[in-house]
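Task: sequence design from structure.
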């Protein structure tokens, strides 16, 4: 299956997610682990498309998400820096997701600078992540209050 860059961007505008997970992890210097993640979820009948997207981005894993849904998930900071961010810089998103991508990119940049390992950097990341996607980020804000 051959897919083109602009098609990928349009598809991600409708089906993709830029997500920042923040989990308690006492082995980290800040006490929390930051997990940036690019994800696309589809019904199992479209698993070939997810595999083609994995090949297109040259990274990630295709795995069961829930029931009959599968996901392409890319978490590697290296892959995000070399594949995901350059792609969407060159082929900009058009929907609200563009704002999420810009915040996601800022968070990845903070992580590249190792700022996620400090309390002040973690607070910056939580503030940016709290503005992403549609849901309220109560967990992130609770973490921020505890820092």
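Answer:
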């Amino acid at each position: 299956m051959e897919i083109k860059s602009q098609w990928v961007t349009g598809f991600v505008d409708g089906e993709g997610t830029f997500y920042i997970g923040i989990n308690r992890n006492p082995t980290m210097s800040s006490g929390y682990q930051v997990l940036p993640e690019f994800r696309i979820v589809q019904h199992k009948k479209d698993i070939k498309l997810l595999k083609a997207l994995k090949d297109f981005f040259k990274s990630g894993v295709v795995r069961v998400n829930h029931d009959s849904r599968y996901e392409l998930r890319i978490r590697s900071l290296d892959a995000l820096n070399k594949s995901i961010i350059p792609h969407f810089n060159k082929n900009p998103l058009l929907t609200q997701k563009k704002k999420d991508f810009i915040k996601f990119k800022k968070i990845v940049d903070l992580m590249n600078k190792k700022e996620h390992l400090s309390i002040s950097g973690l607070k910056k990341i939580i503030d940016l992540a709290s503005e992403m996607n549609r849901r309220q980020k109560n967990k992130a804000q609770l973490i921020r209050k505890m820092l």
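The mean pLDDT is 92.
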